[in-house]
Amino acid sequence: MSHDLSGKVALVTGASRGLGAAIAVKLAACRARVAVNTFASPPKAQQVVQQIRAAGGTAEVFAADVRSEEEVATLVKEVETKLGPIDVLVVNATGPQPFVKLEDLTWRQCLDQLEFFVKSPLLLAKAVVGGMKRRRSGRIINIGSEVFERGVPEFSNYVSAKGAQLGLTWSWAMELAPWQITVNLVAPGWIPTERHVNDPQEQKDAYAKAVPMGHMGNPEDVAEAVAFLASDGAKFITGQKLAVNGGNTLG
Predict the structure, then answer these.
(1) Residue of 77, 92, 93, 116 lying closest to 40 (CA atoms)
(2) SS3 (DSSP) at 232
(3) Which residues are catalytic?
(4) Separation CA 52–CA 73 (nearest Å)
(5) How are beta strands 88-91 and 9-12 bridged, if at all?
(6) CA–CA separation, 169 vs 184, rounded Å?
(7) 125-152 mean pLDDT
(8) What DSSP designation does 233 have?
(9) By three-state DSSP, how is residue 212 classified?
(10) Residue 187's beta-bridge partner residues?
(11) DSSP of 111-180, one letter per residue?
(12) Are the C-beta atoms of residues 57 and 82 closer than 8 Å to each other?
């Protein structure tokens, strides 16, 4: 499905691979000018940009650690200089996601996840919201996860941070609604990407079997949801969690 994002500038964090790359490609296909953010993989990010340009789209690579206040400020300034004011912010960047038993869990391991799913969204939103308010328009889209509803064992460091990210989404949606700025969260299920290449196939098969639709999704499914929420078609939708998981969580 195509959504017209002509004239819009979208910043997608963690966009060198996986969900972020698919989202960047989709938004560019909808004619947005896309800032492809990466931290540790500039060559892969450049490949995403080349793919976008080969299809006739507009994109640039911007390297930054989105957990750093200084680097986020520089990132936003550079994007606005090269592409224009940011209309769509997609908060997708993440790091290692270790499974840790409660007996072994440390506060540092919790903070590691909170830095990606609370600190980073905070820094990014603060950096772009002033311009969005002046234009009385904007989209902030967090990439969450179904794990908050599913309560995955030995994963409380990640699950709790994703819950906090959803809380940010709800509060910011209420706060920014008077400026016609929408804030939503897309919550994928287990979507196989490069991150999961070494995961046991029997685990993937067991997960897929339990999904009501009987199969796992793909990164493009998530990208479609993001493109919709970024479009004018979603201008009256805010504070929502859109699950992209074949019915694996309901309500």
Answers:
(1) 93
(2) helix
(3) 158
(4) 25
(5) parallel
(6) 6
(7) 96
(8) G
(9) coil
(10) 243
(11) HHHHIIIIIHHHHHHHHHHHHHHHHT-EEEEEE--THHHHT-TT-HHHHHHHHHHHHHHHHHHHHHGGGT
(12) no
Kindly report the length of the chain: 251
Two structure tokens written together for 124: 């990014």
- Domain 9-244 belongs to what architecture? 3-Layer(aba) Sandwich (3.40)
| Boundaries of every domain in the chain | 9-244
User: Token pair of 20, please?
Assistant: 């972020």
Q: Rounded CA gap, 187 and 142, in Å?
A: 8
Report which residue type is found at 105: L
Residue type, 146: E
| The two structure tokens encoding residue 10 | 């979208």
**Spatial distance between the Cα atoms of 139 and 126, rounded to a whole number of angstroms:** 13
- pTM of the full predicted structure? 0.95
**Strand 58-63 relative to strand 181-188: parallel, antiparallel, unpaired?**
unpaired
The answer on pLDDT for 251 being more than 70 is no
236 secondary structure, DSSP code: T
Nearest CA-CA partner of 238 in 141, 108, 131: 141
Angle between the 107-114 and 156-176 helix axes, to the nearest 10 degrees?
40
Per-residue model confidence (pLDDT) at position 204: 82
